């Protein structure tokens, strides 16, 4: 049976931060499922930088169907989880079903990949305390408030938790996550 990986996301997730790990992990041989608050076609976004702006801009991105709703997820069916960024984590952190899913992965010490604003979700379940992480640089204070040591780096590995700043760091993020996956949950 092929090892399964769960991506948890919603509307306004960063397109590249959902679809790059989705494709890369499938390429590696994993069975990848996308879960969201409900089964529906999700609307992702593109964040980019424009001259003269102090922060990123947001434009409509790709659409993609969610394979299942958070309420349908059995965390025991999955060997790892990916938490993309974008704006989705701002509201997803309030979802009690998603918090239960995330807690299960941390309680079982399964591999977790988080990027950009994704760490807002792991902070919401108090799973960053005492850990080293990175995130979108504007979240440095949020990560510190969650009890983490923030590092401004392409990818930070703390045990089975692999974090990254944003989509420009994808290659380093997935390289480190695949190293953890191959050790903890190899493709069979």
Automatic annotation (TrEMBL):
Protein species of origin: Streptomyces chartreusis
PROSITE patterns: PEPTIDASE_C56_PFPI
Domain DJ-1/PfpI stretches: 4-178
Family to which the UniProt record says this protein belongs: Belongs to the peptidase C56 family.
Protein name stated in the entry: DJ-1/PfpI family protein
